Amino acid sequence: MKKKVLIGMSGGVDSSVAAYLLKKEGYEVIGATMKLWEDANPTCTSLIAIEKAKKVAKDLNIPHHVFDFKDTFDKNIVQYFISEYLKGKTPNPCVICNREVKFEELLKKAEEMEIDYIATGHYARIVKPSRKTGGRYLLRKAKDKDKDQSYFLYRLTQEQLSKTLFPLGNLTKKKVRKIAKKIGLTVAEERDSQEVCFIPDNDYKKFIENNIKTTPREGNIVNKEGKVLGKHFGIHKYTVGQRKGVKTISNDPLYVIGIDKEKNEIIVGPEESLYTSELTARDTNWVMPDLIKENIPLKAKIRYRAEEMPCQITNIQGNKEGKVTISFKEKQRAISPGQSVVLYKKDLVVGGGIITK
C-alpha cells in the first residue's frame, strides 16, 4: 500500500517540483495550500498563489486542498512580528512560522486525514535515526549551499522532523528549474519571493503603523553617554546596524548600536561600536542536544545571509527560557536582538535560539 504525503504547495516552482518528485517516487501525493493572509504576496499565500497551486495539482493529477490558517497565522506570526518591532527587536517571522504554523498545522491536518507524512519545497535534508545519531532525527544542510534553508528550520521538533520529507534537499535550484521546464510546469521560470509574505511591498514600517491602534511615540536619539543628538519617530523604524534614516546633529556617520524600549531611545555610535564577540540567546531548540556543552567548537550564523563563524557556547542556563551565551573567535558586526542565531557542526544543525543581546 502506498504511503501518503500531504505537501504544502505555494504555487511556486520549488513546492511544485517537490510534489512531482514525490509522486514519481511512488507516494500517494495530496496537495495543500495554506491560506495565511488575505493581502499576501502573490508568490506566497494569496488567492493568486492558491490558483497557481490548484493548476499545478491539476497538471500533476493530484488532489488539492486549501486550509484556512489565517487566525493562527495572525495570532502567532503577524502579532508577534509587530510586537517585537515595537520592543525594538528585529524578528524573523519565517523561523517562528515554520514550527508554529506551517509544520505544526499541516501535520495536524495530515493526522486528521490519516496521511503518513508532510512535505515542503524547502532546501534542507533530514537524517534518519541511527546509533550514530544517538537515535535522533537530524537536520542537515541542502546540497545547494546557496539555497540552503536549514537556518529557518532549526526550531522543528523531533516529531515534526520524523514526519517530514524534503524532496529538494539533494538538488540544486538549477536542477529544480530544469525538471519543472522538462515536465511543462508554467511556474518553471517564476522568480523566488524575497519579501515577508504578508508585506508584499516590503514596507514593514507602514505595515506596522497600519496595524496598531496608537501612533508610535517620538523619542531621543542619543550616544552611549546619553547625549541627545536628534529625534526619532518610532523605535520600530530602526534596527541595529542601520545608518540610513538616522538623522543627528553630528557630522560623523553614526549607526544604530542599540534600542532602549523602556526609555524610548535609539542609541547610536561609530561603526566600530557595532562589533562584539558575544551574544545571549533565549528560547533555544536543540536538534543535537549532546553537543550543547561549554567550549565545544561550533560555527554559528547570526542571520540568514550571514557567513558562519567559529564560536563556542560559554554559558548554559538550564531554566525555562533556555538561555545560552555564545562567544565568537572574531567580533561580529551588528548582532541584532530578535534575530535567530543558529549553530552548526559541519553541515548539521545543532540548534539555535532568539538573540536577546
Please render the helix and strand layout as text.
Layout: E1 4-8, H1 13-24, E2 28-35, H2 47-60, E3 64-68, H3 70-86, H4 93-112, E4 117-119, E5 124-127, E6 138-141, H5 158-162, E7 164-165, H6 173-182, H7 204-210, E8 219-222, E9 228-232, E10 255-260, E11 265-269, E12 275-286, E13 298-301, E14 309-317, E15 323-333, E16 340-345, E17 348-355
Parallel strand pairs: 1-2, 1-4, 2-3, 4-7, 8-11
Antiparallel strand pairs: 5-6, 8-9, 10-11, 12-15, 12-17, 13-14, 13-16, 14-15, 16-17
Helix pairs in contact: 1-6, 3-4
Structural class, by secondary structure, is: alpha/beta
Helix content: 10-25%
Largest sheet: 6 strands, antiparallel, barrel
The succession of helices and strands, N to C, reads EHEHEHHEEEHEHHEEEEEEEEEE
Number of spatially distinct domains? 3
Mean pLDDT: 92
Shape: globular
**CA(first)-CA(last) distance:** 52 Å
Number of helical elements: 7
Trace the largest sheet across and list its strands: 12-15-14-13-16-17
Q: Rounded to an integer, what's the Rg over CA atoms? A: 22 Å
CATH homologous superfamily of the largest domain - what is it? HUPs
CATH architecture of the largest domain: 3-Layer(aba) Sandwich
Describe what this molecule looks like in 3D.
By secondary structure, the protein is of the alpha/beta class. It has 3 domains: 4-182, HUPs (Rossmann fold, 3-Layer(aba) Sandwich); 215-269, Adenine nucleotide alpha hydrolases-like domains (SH3 type barrels); 275-355, Elongation Factor Tu (Ef-tu), domain 3. The chain has 7 helices and 17 strands. It has helices spanning 13-24, 47-60, 70-86, 93-112, 158-162, 173-182, 204-210; strands at 4-8, 28-35, 64-68, 117-119, 124-127, 138-141, 164-165, 219-222, 228-232, 255-260, 265-269, 275-286, 298-301, 309-317, 323-333, 340-345, 348-355. The strands form 4 sheets. Strands 12-15-14-13-16-17 form a 6-stranded antiparallel barrel. Strand 16 and strand 17 form a beta hairpin. Helix 3 packs antiparallel against helix 4 (93-112). The termini are far apart. 40% of the residues are buried. Residues 40-45 have low confidence and may be disordered.
